[in-house]
Structures are given as structure tokens and as C-alpha cells.
Request: fold
Amino acid sequence: MTPEELAAAVRTVLTQAVADGSLSLPEDEVPQPRVERPRSRDHGDWSTNVAMQLAKKARTTPRALAELLAGRLADVAGVARVEVAGPGFLNIRLDAASAGVLARTIVEAGSAYGRNETLASQHVNLEYVSANPTGPVHLGGARWAAVGDSLARVLAACGATVTREYYFNDHGAQIDRFAESLLACARGQEIPEDGYGGSYVGEIAAQVVRAEVAEGRPDPATLPDGEAAEVFRSRGVALMFDSIKAELHAFRSDFDVFFHEDSLHTSGAVDRAIGRLRERGVIEDRDGATWLRTTDFGDDKDRVLIKSNGQPAYFAADVAYYLDKRARGADCCIFLLGADHHGYVGRMMAMCAAYGDEAGTNMQILIGQMVNLVRNGQPVRMSKRAGTIVTLEDLVEAVGVDAARYALARSSMDSMIDIDLDLLASSSSDNPVYYVQYAHARTRSVARNAAEHGVSREAGFDPAALGTRADADLLGVLAQYPATVVQAASLREQHRVARYLESLAAAYHAWYGATRVTPRGQDPVDSGHVARLWLNDAVTQVLANGLELLGVSAPERM
Reply:
């Protein structure tokens, strides 16, 4: 019996009590109860506080309601015992066969175990990384790549249609400075004071020159300043962005849409967005400029869209971009932004409301904190290639894709994290990604060893044979995986999957030390060995499913 099935059984008991008059409660107010793993296993396999939630509405005491439900729940097939505890908790213990059948359920479900349809009606546009195409992906962008891609996988596992999107900032002064830096490098001149440094600038400049000459055009560095800058702008930015895409692809973070900021200005999207807002009566023309009255929706001041010189403000592109996402069918637009954008949230939410949408529902903004790298106890501050920043490339070179993704995705996005490169490169139980991956590899080793000793799942499955405390503990953790996925999606907290995997790995390692899948010496294979092979393989599947949601491999051997 899964937690979901047990919750359904509790609801059925509630509904029956209402129907026969034992419980005074409107039938449409019977909730879907939550069952949770109690902190102490001495209290049972599962617990619910539904009696405490409903007592007031039912005009009774929590304990009286709990006692009413306990008697009925004890008659549910698979329930061994129900106890009322404290002010009205119901502690439920399942019989071994009812609990053990979960192992077969997981193995037979395979990669589908944990997937659900709770978000099946939603189209989510998830935008992340979106770094300027003026250099390699920095460490903050690396965090967003790991978090964003993992979150996209979690949302998709809950049935959502997810569009992974990268906003390509190819409009503005930073692109001019990048082109000027490339040109200076190609001419052997000093990089402008506000330009971009690092060896990658020289690499891109050389690629631009080679490409132009190979196509029969003159060395762009020899052209007049204006023409040369334009060549380095168009070709250099494209080459830099190709490099960024390659970095992200190697990091297993691919995108469905690369949206060009410049297209908002060339396609008339900004004008259309302002027109839509005028229709809604939230645009004001004053002092020669065009303003969005965001103060009507909680912002601290109104925001300029078109400046008095006729040029669009940066916010104008944001206004147009959000409308474009909604026009493409997104019900929920999620933006993953760095901590330096914290002050931008108010105007963005006000803009969403100005369109008549619901801030927090149609638009959601997740703010992430900084990442620090540490090696030998000292902070790592400089990149070999980028010069002034630490990059995604540096991190992957130091620890590999699996460790890098896991380390960046296992913490809450709103917490600053220190990544210890020495720890991540170690084969130690203190290294969280190694700990989880090793658990998966161990399950595969156990399965291979079982085959050599003649233990096979084909011999059948007796769930009642999973009767030890270690079996029950491991089954209890396995049962929590589907709820973990749902919670991670609803809260937009991918790190819950990683922390769950660590708890499952711990439970598995403890189970491995307490039980046997293969017989000792010349002892015959019995139903317990076979049942534990099913349980071992269920752990294999759940670890693989969870690691896949984080974009991390599940190794067969380590």
C-alpha cells in the first residue's frame, strides 16, 4: 500500500462516516488527507492529523474523531494496527505484505514510478541562464543551468508542458563593448577600459579573422573602425554564443528556444506591448516620455518605457517579452534571476498585473544567491580562460559534469553555497554525489551477485517475506518518492529531489548491512532472498529516476 493509497482509504472512511451519520460534516468538505512518515518509527509506518483538521467543522473533539476513524481504518485491508496518539494523531501500521508489495509496484512501473499528472494542464515557460553573449558562462550561470534544467525535468515529470528558454541579450551597450574588445585584440591594441578581458577574447577575435579571410574577404582588423566594429559585432557575438551553447550542451542543459532580445525591437513587439497596455488604461505620457503606471500595482515608482529622446528603455523589452511568452501559450512564466536582480522583482510583478494577469501565478520569479568555489581551504577566484571570473568550464574541468550539476542543484536557490572542489573530487561518503551514485552502483552489484547465486525475480514475489524492521524502513523511504517529486514541482524546489536521494541512499546502505539477498554458504534460496532482490531492484529504479531528474548519471559500477 502506497501513501497515496492509504490517504485514499482514510478519505473513504471519512466519506462513509458522513454518509451513515456518524460524522456531522458536509460531504463536499471531506478533504484529501495527508499521510506522512512519523519521526519515530515506534509510532507506526504512517501518521495523519486529519482528525485535528476536521474536528472543529465536525463539532467534536480531535481525539473523539480520531477514535471514530481508528476503529474503521483497522478494518481496511492491509492495515495491521491503528493507534490514537496525543491530541488526535492517527498512527497507522501496515502488515508486511501490504507494505512489501510496493517493491514490485516500483519495479514494474520502471521509469514511470514517481511521474504524475498533477501539472498536466499547465504550459510553463522556464527561462534561465540568459547570460550576456560576451564571455563564457560564469559560475552563477552554471548554477542556473543546473537548477533550471533540473526544475524543468521535475515539472515535466508532473505532466507540465515545459519550454526551456534562453534570453539572448544581443541589444545594448554591452555588445558594443564586446565588439570593441574583439577589434582591439585583433589589432594588437589595449582592450578598452570598460571592455572584456581574458584569453577567450583573443580566441574569438582570431576566429573572426580566419572566417572572414577564408570566405575571400579582407582581414576585418584592417577595415575602417565603423566597418571593422560591425564585422566583429555580428560574427564575434555569433561565435561567442555558439561557444556558450556548446558549454551548456556539454553540461546537459539544452534549450527549446533561444530568444533574441533584438527581435523585440525589430519586429514591433515593443510597440504592440505598449499598445496593449494603453488599451488597459495603464499608460501615461508625460515629460515627453511614455510611462507604465506600475505604482497602480504595488511598485514603488512608475517606470519609463519610451524615453524622452524616443529610445526605448530597457524595461520596454521586458514588457514586450512577457507578452510574447503569453502569446506563445505560456500559462506560467518562470524567471530564474541572480541576486543582483532582486530589486527588479517589484516592477516585473507590477507589469504582470498591469496586463490583467495574476502575479505569482502567471509570472513567478526565483532569485538565486552566489556560488563560491573553494580548493585546499582557499577561495578560487580567477579563471584561466576568462581572467576575472570563475566559469562553468572551470568547474566541470575540476570535478566533472555529474558532480558539478549535483552540487549546484542540491541546495535551495535562495541560499549562498560554497563548493569544495576537493570534496567533490573525492570517493568519500562525505561527497553527496558519490554517496548517491555509489548506492546505485551497489544495487547493481547486488543484482549481479544474486544472479550468480541463482536468486531471480522470476521465482515469484512474496511481499510478506519483507518482514524485518530494515525492510520496512527502506520501503517507507521508497514510498515517499512520488510525493517528493510533486512537492519539488509545486514549490519550485529541485533540491528536494537531491536531499531525498541522499536519505534513500542512507536507508539502502543501512538495509544492505542488515539483510541478505543471497544465501549463506550452501543454504537454499528462499522467498526472503527473492523478495529482497525485488526490493534491491526497486531502489535501483528510484535512484535512477531521481538522478535523471537532476541530469546526473546512474553508474553501473564505481
In short: The CA atoms of residues 220 and 228 lie 5 Å apart. The first strand starts at residue 46 and ends at 48. The mean pLDDT is 91.
